[in-house]
Amino acid sequence: MSALQLDAEALFEDLLVHVRGLLRPNTVLVGIWSGGAWLAERLQRELPLEGEHGVISSALHRDDFGSRGLTAGADHTRLPFEIEGRHILLIDDVLFTGRTTRAVINELFDFGRPASVTLAVLVDRGGRELPIHPAYSAARITLPAHQKLSLARDDAGRFSFDIQERAA
Q1: Which residues touch 33 (CB under 8 Å, ≥6 apart)?
Q2: What angle do CA 34, 36, 37 make, to 5 degrees?
C-alpha cells in the first residue's frame, strides 16, 4: 500500500472501532504530541469515556535530547487525571522506530505507576529499533527510511497525511 493512497479519515474510523475493544474500566486516553494528541482528542469525543484525554510529549525523555535540544512539544504534557493505577491507552499517529514511545512511557512513569499501558496507532510503518509493538494499528506500510509520514489536520479537524524527506 502506498502512503499516498492512505485515507486518514477512513483509518481513523477503523481505529475508533478497534479502540473500543481495547477499553476497560479505569481506562484513560493519552495522545502523543502532536498527531496522537489530535487523534486522542477526537477519540475522546466519540468514545464512551468520562473526563478528559491527556496529552504527553516525548521531548524531555528522548535518547537524542542532546542533539535535538528542547523541542516545541516539550511543554505540551497535560495529564488531567491520576496516572497511578490507571489503564493508559496511548494513542499515536505513526509508529516507526519506537523511540518516541519509549520516551513517552518514561514520561508517564514520572507521574505515577499505571496499571497498564497499551499502544494503538493509526499507521505502523515498521523499522523498529526497539521491541515495541502496538496492540492495534489501522494500517501497516513500508516507506524508505529517508521519508517521514506525518498526520495533518485541517481547520475543520479532518485528517490527512503528509510525506516529507527527512533532513540528512
Answers
A1: 55, 56, 57, 58, 73, 76, 77
A2: 65
Cell triple for residue 11?
483509518
What is the pLDDT confidence band of residue 3, given thresholds at 50, 70 and 90? very low
Give me the pLDDT at residue 23, please: 97
**Single-letter code of the amino acid located at 28:** V
For the chain, the three-class secondary structure string (H helix, E strand, C coil) is CCHHHCCHHHHHHHHHHHHHCCCCCCEEEEEECCHHHHHHHHHHHHCCCCCCCEEECCHHHCCCHHHHCCCHHHHCCECCCCCCCCEEEEEEEEECCCHHHHHHHHHHHHCCCCCEEEEEEEEECCCCCCCCCCCEEEEECCCCCCEEEEEEECCCCCEEEEEEECCC
- Output the pTM of the full model: 0.91
Lowest mean pLDDT segment, chosen from 55-59, 70-74, 87-91, 157-161: 70-74
What is the dihedral sign for C-alpha 63, 74, 45, 10?
A: negative
* Pair 93, 6: CB distance under 8 Å: no
